[in-house]
Amino acid sequence: MINPPETVFTDSHRVSCDGAAEIRTAGGYQPAALGHPRVWLEIDEKGFVECGYCDKRFVLKGGPADQQAA
């Protein structure tokens, strides 16, 4: 079974992703070398953006793609 990509809800139109979210543990942090290079992404009029490396989806809270607002 393939797990769906992680979805992150944010208040900002500009977000960064380094793919290391799953690597960070209680109080500890592993270098981003275990994830992917940090990239900056801009959420457009669709209300979301996906990371080209890890497919993580960033959704603007209250935007057109925010299903929680409905």
Automatic annotation (TrEMBL):
Superkingdom of source: Bacteria
Protein name, UniProt field: Zinc finger CHCC-type domain-containing protein
Stored Gene3D superfamilies: q5lls5 like domains
Pfam families: zf-CHCC (PF10276)
InterPro entries, sorted: Znf_CHCC
Lineage, highest ranks first: Bacteria, Pseudomonadati, Pseudomonadota, Alphaproteobacteria, Sphingomonadales
Annotated Zinc finger CHCC-type domain residues: 13-58
